[in-house]
């Protein structure tokens, strides 16, 4: 069959299907009642909640920075953790801006890539949390001061502290390599895919592959 | 050739009444049963209603509607059926989802298009609806030459698979 025959066949089929379709479309008034069914409503709710959590965390850490006067290590630790909270806030706020800018009347590939990027946001959160792993001492110092009132840096064994610092420094390159690999659609090792799936979830894993597929579609 | 006349943004109900064909066509192609079809038509209508303020008369209304309908449908499909692959769907499809539908050669063609992955499906729909490559590229956000290459590949597959 030639192209024009396929097109003619398609049109006649569509005409017949149209004849069989008995569906009343909504009126503007019904639409106003249905407007709550926004397709991106869940994403909006999740990002707003996430931003609020980060803001609350930053507020708590700021209070601690002010209260930990005289305890340098816990105070610096709170500052370090605050920096992560600031990055978290900017990430979530950026997502809200992206959501606000996303228009469904844009070119299909562009809109779908935007949607998949919004859906894989949990990966960015995971990467951010993972990047705090080499700074685990900040967590240790901070929580010991907050929960038990102990400045571990001032009262801890110097050899133990040195060992922890060496471990932190050793974790730094590995963690950043892992974070970079986790951001790739096809990481070099299968266990990284497994780790990504188990931490960020199957949906994020699909979104990561979805972005790659869409980009592939627009270029090949 | 589709009507490419440019219009200022008309009111919602006029858009829906005059262009319901586009909404039905896209929704039918991306669903496989009556309930999903009705749901998708509703989702597309809501999105049109919400986007109407953004409509720019520089675009043909039909182009604008196709973009919205395809974006809503593909997003829904990617969320719900992203694991299904072409062959699985093609073999599993019992019908095109609507009662009293036609059968035979045109039905085969319809099923073939419906079983394509979401973006290829959009491409083939617009091609069979006689849109020029440049306009298909604008709707999908890919280059005109890329549209040509993909359509040529799809036509080869169509010829081979629907001999």
From TrEMBL, chain B:
RNA polymerase sigma factor 70 region 4 type domain: residues covered: 107-158
Gene3D superfamilies: 1.10.1740.10, Winged helix-like DNA-binding domain superfamily/Winged helix DNA-binding domain
Gene Ontology terms for molecular function: DNA binding; sigma factor activity
Biological processes annotated in GO: DNA-templated transcription initiation
Residues covered by the RNA polymerase sigma-70 region domain: 17-83
Keywords, ordered alphabetically: Sigma factor, Transcription, Transcription regulation
Pfam family, one: Sigma70_r2
Similarity remark: Belongs to the sigma-70 factor family. ECF subfamily.
Protein name (database record): RNA polymerase subunit sigma-70
Species this protein is from: Phaeodactylibacter xiamenensis
């Amino acid at each position: 069959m030639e192209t024009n025959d396929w097109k003619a066949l398609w049109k006649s089929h569509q005409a017949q299907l149209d004849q069989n379709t008995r569906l009343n479309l909504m009126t503007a008034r019904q639409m106003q009642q249905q407007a709550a069914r926004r397709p991106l409503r869940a994403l909006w709710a999740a990002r707003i909640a996430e931003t609020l959590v980060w803001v609350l965390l930053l507020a708590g850490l700021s209070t601690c920075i002010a209260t930990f006067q005289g305890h340098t290590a816990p105070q610096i630790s709170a500052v370090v953790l605050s920096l992560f909270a600031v990055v978290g806030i900017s990430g979530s706020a950026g997502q809200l801006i992206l959501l606000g800018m996303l228009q469904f009347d844009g070119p299909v590939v562009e809109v779908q890539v935007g949607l998949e990027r919004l859906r894989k946001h949990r990966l960015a959160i995971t990467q951010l949390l993972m990047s705090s792993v080499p700074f685990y001492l900040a967590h240790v110092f901070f929580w010991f001061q907050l929960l038990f009132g102990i400045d571990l840096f001032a009262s801890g064994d110097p050899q133990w502290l040195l060992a922890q610092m060496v471990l932190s420094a050793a974790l730094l390159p590995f963690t950043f390599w892992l974070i970079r690999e986790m951001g790739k659609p096809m990481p070099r090792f299968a266990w990284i895919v497994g780790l990504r799936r188990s931490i960020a979830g199957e949906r994020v894993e699909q979104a990561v592959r979805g972005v790659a597929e869409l980009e592939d579609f627009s270029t090949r | 050739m589709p009507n490419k006349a440019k219009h200022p943004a008309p009111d919602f109900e006029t858009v829906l009444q005059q262009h319901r064909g586009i909404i039905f066509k896209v929704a039918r192609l991306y669903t496989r049963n009556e309930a999903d079809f009705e749901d998708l038509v509703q989702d597309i209508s809501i999105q049109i209603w919400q986007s109407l303020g953004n409509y720019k008369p520089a675009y043909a209304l039909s182009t604008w509607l196709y973009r919205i309908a395809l974006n809503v449908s593909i997003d829904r499909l990617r969320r719900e059926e992203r694991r299904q692959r072409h062959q699985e769907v093609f073999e599993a499809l019992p019908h095109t989802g609507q009662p009293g539908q036609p059968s035979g050669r045109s039905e085969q063609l319809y099923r073939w298009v419906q079983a394509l992955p979401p973006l290829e499906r959009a491409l083939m729909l617009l091609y069979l609806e006689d849109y020029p490559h440049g306009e298909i590229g604008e709707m999908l956000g890919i280059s005109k030459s890329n549209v040509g290459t993909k359509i040529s590949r799809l036509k080869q597959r169509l010829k081979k698979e629907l001999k």
